[in-house]
Amino acid sequence: MSNISELTKGLWKENPVLRLLLGMCPALAVTTAVEYAVGMGLSATFVLLSSNVVVASLRNIIPAKTRLPCFIVIIATFVTIVDLVLNGFAHDIHKSLGIFIPLIVVNCVILGRAEAFASKRPVFDSFLDGLGMGLGFTLALVALASVREILGNGTWLGMSLTGGEFTPVLLFVLPPGAFISLGFLLAGMNVIEKRRQANG
Amino acid sequence: MSSVTARFKRGGVHPYEGKELSAASELVTVEVPKRLQVPVTQHLGKPSKVVVEKGQDVQVGQILAEADGPISAPVHSPVSGKVLKIGDAEIVGAYRAPVIDIMNDGKFTGEEAFKGTPVVNWDEKGDFLGRIRSAGVVGLGGAAFPTAVKLRPPPNVKIDHLLINGCECEPYLTADDILMRERAAEVVAGCAIMAGILGVDRVRIGVEVNKPRAIEALSTAISQQVYTATFKGAIPSFDIVTVPLRTMYPQGAEKQLIEAITGRQVPSGQLPFSVGCVVQNVGTALAVFDAVARKRPLFERVVTLTGGAITNPGNYLARIGTPVSALVAAAGGTTEALAAQVAGGPMMGKSLRNHDVPVVKGMSGLLFLTAAEAAAAEETDCIRCGRCVNACPMGLAPCEITAQADFLKWEKSISLGALDCVECGSCQYVCPANRFLVARVRLTKFYSRRLPK
Amino acid sequence: MSDKAPESSVKAVVVVVIIAAICAAGLAFVKQITEEPIAEARRQETLAALQRVVPAGCEIKLEGKLVRPEGADEGAAETKLIFPGYDADGQLCGIAVRSRNDKGYSGKILVVSGYSDLESRETLKLNRIYVTEHAETPGLGSLITNLQDEEPATWGTDRSKVYGLNFLDRLVATLSWKVAKSAAAGENDVAAVTAATISSRAVAGAVQVAASLVSEDLDGLKAAFASTARSE
Amino acid sequence: MSENRMILQSSPHARDRESVRKVMYTVTLALLPAVIAGTVFFGLRALLVMALSVVACLIFEGIAMKVSGKPVKETLLDGSAVITGLLVAMNLPSGLPLWMVVVGALVAIVLGKHVYGGLGNNPFNPALVARVFLLISFPTAMTAWPVPYGTDGVTAATPLGVLQMEGAAVALQSIPYYNLLIGNVGGCLGETSAIALLLGGIILLVRKVISWEIPVTFIATVLVFTTITWLVAPDKHINPLWHVLSGGVMLGAWFMATDMVTSPVSRKGMLLFGVGCGFFTCIIRLWAGYPEGVSFAILIMNGLVPLIDRYLAPTRFGARQATQGAKA
Fold first, then answer.
1. B273 burial via Cβ count (<10 Å: 0-12, 13-18, 19+)
2. Which chain D residues touch B375 with a CB distance below 8 Å?
3. D12: closest CA among B436, C32, A174?
4. Residue of higher predicted confidence among B330 and C75
5. Does D260 touch chain C (CB under 8 A)?
6. Is the dihedral of CA D46, D49, D52, D53 positive or negative?
7. Over the stretch D117-138, which tens digit does the pLDDT of each residue have?
8. Torsion over CA of A38, A43, A48 and A51, rounded to 10 degrees?
9. Which CATH number fits domain B19-23+115-293: 3.40.50.300, 3.30.450.150, 2.170.8.10, 3.40.50.11540?
10. Cα–Cα distance, B60 to A164 (Å, whole number)
11. Going by beta carbons, is chain A in contact with chain D, meaning 3 or more pairs sit under 8 Å apart?
12. In this predicted structure, what is the pLDDT of residue C6?
């Protein structure tokens, strides 16, 4: 029972982007298209999952004093692995995500979960937490990217939705559009959450 | 012509004057009612101490409550009769305060003592301040600060100006106007007495140019030296001048008056003493004269009853403690159009709930306003038009101060100058969004007293 | 972890070092297996862009690359990379140049331009261009790349919408390189993309540098590339 | 008279007759000359854009107020939405697709105003937010300027566009001053006629809705700045008069920068604000990618208003004396 909640909390209740406001930098930077959002989300999920599992399994070995350097080394290793693998085997995605992937290292979601969760909990829980948080991160990115891609480019995942009839609102694929869309998503989340709390 | 007339430099508004309603009529003496309620404390400062008991017989001018400490003032009985009870009653400002209920026996025993020929014996100059103090004279312009305190500057301060405030810049009110017109000589004599006490020879009486008859009466009194008729002994020499001032609210605010006449600005948080000035109201000058020349305590005053909803607007001489209802009756009652009633002027007065409250020393007027005059409105959000900034005579930004107050940021609001505010209401008068700016400043001042220093 | 007795500093350092060592080893392994695919992907990418700008049947040889000015740092702004293309018979049939201009709306723009008909300066033809790298405003400056991944046959004729049309099959000698708004642009001028004059100018500038290089040094390049071909 | 019906309030008990509604409708009145000029030069299509923009703004304002729980009936017609609508339209080319006009109205009212809490709380001028949003989002449509008296689809560059593309000499030759003055040039439908806008500005000044500080310093700064560049390089830069009469300076200085909500409240602040607007306008016009910089300049200065208000508060009463005393 509690295992399931470890998995699902990242999706909504403690969604890293939309509730905890973590990982804003990638969330704003790569969400110009759903494709990139998926790529970024899955890469981050992989890193999150791996680092959570490793940190959790090493939690009794890593000394408290030097835990942050250890976490950073572990996370950086996985990020570099993702970078290399994508570059080698999915070059197109790497081309568009290239400059953002190193940023995963400083993504607060990952360090945050390592510090707040994985370093204190068993491996399996940390695995679920990492998976849930990663999926939540991906979902949030996809939601944001969907808004921006549909409005800003008239397409979704590269598929034209409007048959070229619609003049896209360019602003949404530009940085200000990211902030505006995120603002409205957050507002929407808050409204829904408030209603839920009022009802529950 | 107005361009050459002196005025304060910054801000100010020019509301509808409304003086014509009450200015023309003669001073009417209100019939003293059977029962009066005399509030124990009618001044700014330490509350007075009651010295009479329930059931005690009192005479006109007998002390009911005495001054407690240096910044305080005594209260005297306006009539002769019996103390019915000492308890709480509603007074102006819609709160309850200690009052002394007196049953008027209609005989006015003891009043004769104050009706002799007035004499100002300059050889007794050292006694003047004591007479003013024991007569319970307070500032009659509205603030009701004990006059004797203002006439005794700290020893290290050099005072070179006595400014007499005859501006009556509040719209509608004409109580000071009628005093200046009808009792100019006594007013000027009162000014001379205060100048003598302070040891200054420069006396400036500032009057707004919308009261030409008052200016003329004062000037005549001064030039013909009418006021010296009551003087005896070694009369000091005085340089008394009437200064016409531009009609602009708040011309009569202390700091603004000093700037208009002398060009000096009282620094923030300081008193007029700091620039060598003392400011007194014309009504106060008259009360000072009565106290010194007649040894007559302050137990009656002129109250302007005016506004579109009173039958006979005019100026009424009433004893302290007379209920407002008696004044209203004397003025022929209110009309159906009455929508708001205010004690004081429209800019700084206080709303009245009913007519039961008594007249006090600081009550300069009673307004009975129609809905159109009162102009109450719902407040809307500030549109930052900056009108309040332009109107503020103190150089503040009321919109910013009150915006901080809205977020309960009292320190921020104070740092923007909330404590410098004189609550003249100019900002709120011009506000197109009808913001309750003054109320918010008052709230800030209230909280400022609770903040850790 | 936190409720354990405080560890010694030595142990803390040792653990970090061990973890770092293990990570390094892992990375080395991953690096090894991805090195080859990464290099290949990069090569393919470059090749694809270069191949696009020279005529069909003309095969670019990446190994034959020349760097101008000679010995310059390949990333520097003034550096041009020049690639030869050979036909089935091994004859030099095209030249592709990668040049750079930093005056784009958002700075650096990399363009490859391809040249054919190398007989003389008068016959030298600008075959096609391809923007390989830019950071121009999406939807505005980025329109300089509009349709560049499609075949020229699908481009239509509006030079202000498809920027590549300006540089498609043009005699280098006749190009004026003047960038003007589409309505004011003459036949030999460059018609700027609507509302993206600066980006258009930057691309045209990069292409002009490349084109004049090829045009002025045509014989030298032909000689150099002929020798490269022989040496293979 | 029952005491329940008495008005009980804190002082003052008098008000002047000015109200937000009056202020707003005066601005609307002042915009009339420009509305007429726009209609004359750009035809009924311009009128349609303006009407649509106003109606759309009113509808969105109503919805936004309803959603945020404000009294719709009392404040919907306070005129602020009408003005925003008009000003949005003034900042658009008359040929803009109508649905984009509606998007502009939506952005102005919702993004520019109500997300901050409605009238009085928005840091940026809503109409300019809409203009910049549209300009960035639909660059092609937003820079297709119909020719005055022209038929559908015929477009031409704005005077500043000509200046940027063709240089000062061509601009001076092809566009005479009187056309700039009366507005017979390409541009946003409300910004071309300098004379109509000036007339509106005078109405605002006379009715005391605005004070002189912002428009005068704005225009003066543009004049001074462009005079300097003109004197330094007369062949490269155009004369100051041309700069002031072309583009959005007049509309910006009289109607956009003076927006009460988004400009400083103190006199000193207003002076600095006007200078800043003029300064950034010139910087953008002379050295940046866009031919016109008024909207950006005003938005930049809007963003600085809280700072300006903090550091350029009005001089407090007594401050002068205090410093003199300190010196003595």
1. middle
2. 13-15
3. B436
4. B330
5. no
6. negative
7. 888 889 999 999 999 999 888 8
8. 170
9. 3.40.50.11540
10. 97
11. yes
12. 54
Domain that holds residue D207: 20-311
Q: Is the pLDDT of residue D160 over 90?
A: no
CA B129 from chain centre, in angstroms, equals 20
Residues 6+ apart with CB under 8 A from C53: C96, C112, C113, C114, C127, C128, C129, C130
Min Cα distance D139 → chain C (Å) is: 7
The residue length of chain B stands at: 453
The overall average pLDDT reported for chain D is 88
Of C2, C15, C30, the CB nearest to A84: C30
Domain that holds residue A164: 3-198
Distance from CA of B188 to the nearest CA of D (A): 30
Please tell me the distance from the alpha carbon of residue C91 to that of residue B268, in angstroms, as a whole number. 93
Nearest by CB: C23 against A74, A120, A173: A74
Which sequence spans correspond to the domains of chain B?
19-23+115-293, 387-448
- With tokens 């009975």, the residue in question is B368
Pairing of strands B350-351, B338-343: antiparallel
* pLDDT > 70: percent of chain B: 99
In chain A the beta strands, taken as DSSP E runs, fall at: 155-156, 159-160
Q: Does A170 touch chain D (CB under 8 A)?
A: yes
Going across the sheet that includes B202-208, the strands are B239-245, B202-208, B161-165, B277-281
pLDDT at C32 exceeding the cut of 80: yes
Neighbours of chain D (3+ CB pairs under 8 A): A, B, C
Contact call for D97 and A180, based on CB within 8 A: no
Q: Is residue D14 part of a domain?
A: no
Domain ranges of chain C: 50-231
Minimum CA–CA partner of D131 in chain A? A171
Q: Which DSSP symbol is given to A197?
A: H
What pLDDT sits at residue D117? 87
Q: Do B374 and D13 touch (CB under 8 A)?
A: yes
Q: Which residues of D are less than 8 Å from A183 in CB distance?
A: 115
D138 and A183 within 8 Å at the Cβ level: the answer is no
Buried b (16+ CB within 10 A) or exposed e, A137-158: bbbbbbbbbbbbbbbbbbbeee
**Rounded to whole angstroms, how far apart are CA atoms B21 and B308?**
8
**Chain A residue with minimal CA distance to C13?**
A66
How many domains does one find in chain D? 1
Residue that is written with structure tokens 């930077």 in the block: A29
- Closest residue by Cα to residue D83 from D130, D43, D40, D41: D130
Kindly indicate the confidence band of residue A61, based on its pLDDT and cuts at 50, 70 and 90: confident
Using the predicted structure, report yes or no on whether residue D327 has a pLDDT greater than 60.
Answer: no
Q: Which chain C residue is nearest to residue D290, measuring alpha carbons?
A: C195
Structure confidence by residue, pLDDT tens digits, D15-69: 888 888 888 889 999 999 999 999 999 989 999 999 999 999 999 999 999 988 8
Q: Which amino acid is at B283?
A: G
Domain-located, residue D142: yes
